[in-house]
Amino acid sequence: MSTGSLRIALVGNPNCGKTALFNQLTGGRQKVANYAGVTVERKEGRFTAPSGRVLQILDLPGTYSFDATSPDEQITRDVLEGNYPGEAAPDLIVCVADATNLRLHLRFVLEVKRLGRPVVLALNMMDTARRRGIEIDIPQLQQRLGLPVVETVAVKRGGARALIERVDGEVPVAAPAMPDDAVSRAGLHAQVRALLDATVRMPRATAALDDALDRWALHPVFGLMILAVVMFLVFQAVYSFGKPMSDLIGDGFDWIGAHLAIWLPQGPLQGLLKDGICTGLGTVLGFLPEILVLFFFILTLEESGYLPRAAFLLDRMMLSVGLTGRSFIPLLSSFACAIPGIMGTRSIQDPRDRLTTILVAPLMTCSARLPVYALLIGAFIPMHRVWGIFNLQGLVLFALYVAGILGAMLVGWVIKHLRHDRSEHALLMELPSYRVPQPRDVAIGLWERGAIFLKRLTGVILALTVLMWFISTFPSPPAGATGPAIDYSIAGYLGRGLQYVFAPLGFNWQISLSLIPAFAARETAVAALATVYAVGGDATTNGLAHALTSNFSLASALSLLVWFAFAPQCMSTLAVIRRETNSWRNVAISFSYMFAVAYSASFITYQLARWFL
Amino acid sequence: MRLSDLPKGASAVVERVEDVQANDPIAQRLRDLGFVEGERVRLVASGPIGADPLLIQIGYTRFALRRSEAARVTVREVA
């Protein structure tokens, strides 16, 4: 037996539990990247087998067959055949199949076998199969397939033991490669049927639990009601669990800033650390809990199998505005942050539907906009009760969310009518069996989302906060100057320049200036305003709201709120659009349509508000 | 009859999938997913608006198909 490392590729149908198996094998030791130039995710991990051999595992995208034209399927095939540039052919292919769904999954196993490479078949979810009374004659299946077959239960501790022992042993002999043409493909189903007849006994064609749950979850009336309640509870949870944690983080940084001010001598260094880094980091890190709480629910609902049901219920509605039911999950993620939302559009197969979803995703109110909303609403909107039960501040916030959703529907509808291609868009979506979400898989998913956010934070956002502090502090006012110091700084000049563009929307120069860092990351608008007014001496730490009310009108505030509802998304979002669509044109479209919509909506809001208020 | 005309809860056996255009990718995908002659299918549920999409059970798998997609599948109803 060789002691060098062994490259293993994991393949299988979507929903075969391949990713859970990958997580089980590699734990957190994963490297996630993209295949060059395309948006297919490349996930690699490694572990050391009992023999001491290092196993490198590549998790390939879920695939139904090799003959379809999606990039996922093409790459999976190329990698398996060793034809993908820069990727060595795997020494061993582990084909994962859901034991409760062999009718569908065995077909792909046969396709993989015909590549003529060493293959081990992992029959996953064997515990569920047994519970449902499915009996599989494994020795017989192994003999008929001519492949080693092992049982796995990816969601159970030690559930991959048989697989590890098998791959740690001798590499199996490959079956001869077979030609791949339409005629032989058509025969695959007949082969699957013959295999099933000889080796599998199934009691009933369905799981009683799925039937019972779907009767409610997909009911035309109750199904929609359940969906509304679930969404309401998720957003409620984001505010009731996420918000206090966010506030705690913000307070923590304020405390650190206050102590730095005591230890450090007055001067530029103290200013940078306290007004620049602490205030900026505190505001921005503050969203992490809210993002994580929202993703916790999205991941849990996705793992449980409920989210595809939601997509089913909403498909027709979304189709009428040029989207698809499959857009639902990415758009829901976009309420946390558009970046994972846009990355999540990879699950949409139709390229036109995918592009529309990418273009409208940034209109969903991401959590980065919340601090801006919270600040302005808190400062300008009174705490009135409306009709005895609603709070006016809450209603305004709700209206901003609705504005984003309506905007997205309108944009989707316009794109649909501008498009000349009238050919059919496919749905063809599998609704997987319900399952209990596994804490490990949810935790790994959360870790990935959190890491994306923090990476962005440490790079772009931190640099910008420091830059903002710098341009609002230097150059220092000349000796004998009477106005606030910031009026003489670079920021003062820049802001006054931008004001020419934004004056019709009612923005003063401080706001105009804060739009620059807001373009880098929306949440920094608050930090930037705080920095500008702090450096200008107008605000103490908790007096920003007060500084705002004394510096601009309600009409300007409403206009700014509307601006943030539609404004061009942050730089990182544009970068992700570029990466995901591989086109600068889409970036330009996305930026300019949002700028136009935001500018006109804010203009109308400001002029109307000045007239009526 | 067409799969899209199947009453709710009814079972049928697939006869064939028709291409509505040359090299119809949707028809090809349906065949890959197991909609081939002799397979038993059942209409489990339908969407809230215009009874679209349809939830079709084939074997142990449930697929959401839009009506236009299901119309490509010709079936024979069975008890």
Write a structural description.
The complex is a heterodimer of chains A (about 625) and B (about 80). By secondary structure, chain A is an alpha/beta fold. Chain A folds into three domains: about 5-205, Rossmann fold (3-Layer(aba) Sandwich); about 225-420, no CATH class; about 450-610, no CATH class. Chain A contains 26 helices and twelve strands. In chain A, the strands form three sheets. Chain A has a seven-stranded mixed beta sheet, with helices on both faces. Chain A is elongated, with a radius of gyration of 28 Å. The mean pLDDT of chain A is about 85. Chain B is α+β, with helices and mostly antiparallel strands and about 80 residues long. Chain B has one domain: SH3 type barrels (Roll), CATH 2.30.30.90. Chain B has two helices and five strands, in the order βαβββαβ. Chain B has a five-stranded antiparallel beta sheet. Classes of the chains: A alpha/beta (about 625), B alpha+beta (about 80). Strand 12 (about 430) of chain A pairs antiparallel with strand 4 of chain B, so a sheet runs across the interface. Chain B: It comes from Dyella mobilis. Chain B: Pfam families: FeoA (PF04023). Chain B: InterPro entries: Fe-transptr_FeoA-like, FeoA, FeoA_core_dom, Transcriptional_repressor_C. Chain B: This is Ferrous iron transport protein A. Chain B: Keywords: Iron.
Describe the structure concisely.
The complex is a heterodimer of chains A (613) and B (79). With 613 residues, chain A is α/β, with parallel strands linked by helices.
Features of this protein?
heterodimer; A: 613 residues; alpha/beta; Rossmann fold; 3 domains; 7-stranded mixed beta sheet; two-stranded antiparallel ribbon; 26 helices; B: 79 residues; alpha+beta; SH3 type barrels; 5-stranded antiparallel beta sheet; 15% helix; 44% strand; globular; FeoA_core_dom (chain B); iron (chain B)
